[in-house]
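Researcher: Please generate the 3D structure of the following complex. Treat every line as part of one assembly.
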Amino acid sequence: MKPTVSNLIDAMLKGDELSLSKLVSLLEQESEHAPEIIKAIYPHTGKSYRLGITGMPGAGKSTMVDQLVSIIRQNGLSAGVICADPSSPFTGGAILGDRIRMKRHFLDDRVFIRSMAARNSPGGLPRTTSDVIKLLDAYGKDIILIETVGAGQSDLDIMKSADTVVVVLVPEAGDTIQVIKAGLMEIADIFVVNKADHTGVEAMAEDIASFTRRKNQAPYEIPVLTTIATDNIGIDRLYEQIEKHRQFLLQSGQLNERRQQQWREEFEQLLESKVMGSVKDFVEKDAAVLDYLSQIDRGTIDPHAAMEGLINNRFMDAWLRKLSGSNNSNM
Amino acid sequence: MPDTNIKMKMVIATLGLEVHWRGAVTVARLLRDCGVEVVFIGNAYPDEIIQVAMQEGADIVGVSSLTGGHLILGSELMEVASQKGIKDNVVFVIGGIFPPGDLPKLKEAGFDGTFGPEANGEVIYTFIKKAVSLKQKELPDI
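Model: Done. Output below.
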């Protein structure tokens, strides 16, 4: 007998890992069952602590996650890991090669690892990540680690899905100019300079520290740590700092504030994508739009004037009617 | 870029202590180029491979064996798959160097397909695509 979605949800909530995995697949595929799944699990979320690990490609994120999972397990806690890797923009395929660094945890039944391809999402994480996080939360994972794709300076999605963000750099990452650039440098709650056995580590750590000194808001000071993840050096201290940050967020009330902000943004994003999706649909078939497009092609009108023309021609009315489901013939 | 949300996901491993990794890596890349999402885990034993396949929601498991471990570890892999209840809806393929006499034994053990050194990316992709759609014909109501 085939299980239904609600069978899967019940089984997952009772701790069945295979059901969890199937539900993750459904969410990842953006199945029509997704809203139903989210609705059912939402009351069970909010207990997990979400740790984001981001940084450049090759900085050592996966190795660091592997070491952190060991410490988490030594502390008797359970771990969920989501590791993201880029999708080919040409073929849509991907090589998901992060969990290969976490082999010692494969047979630990309190560790669930899921690899996800970024697909065409631009911000460092697949679009469905925050839904998958909710599943792991409902399933009962104490700590959820989210490893982004190797990020550049504008892959900032991790901010939307984590409570503590760790930014991992390596000494080769460049000089002070790199450090002061916006984006990645601004979202860190903790900085780590990994591969600390390479030359340039002190200089880089000092550059980052001088940057954070200017930024720091008491009582939380952004720490800059150095580690050699492959040799498990410095990871204990990293774990302590993560715990310190968590305590700070709890005591200051910021944990809830951040999460509320994230939920609001998630809703706005859904709204935006729904609206844009329907406009796109409409625009591709609307006669007036197509007419303006061909004028634009010929160069007889500029895009702004075309937009004005559309609005004046009651394009918005037509689109809104379509949106609310009433029958609308082409303008 | 292809705009579908339903991709094939495949776990690729080199079986046991198999030291030859180039074939597996090459196949991983070729299949990536065909649009497959490949979870590459390198050397792994049957129980690890099955555990990974379950967590990852894999449609296909592919293992590579060139130094003779295929019958023993291959059968063990299919045993574990059967015990864990995924043998019937996941496609299992094995690639490498096998004495011709062993091919029927691999099929008997439960592998859906076997590939030798002459196989290319397209051949493998076409095979697994068809095998997945046959095995998953009853798409979960779900």
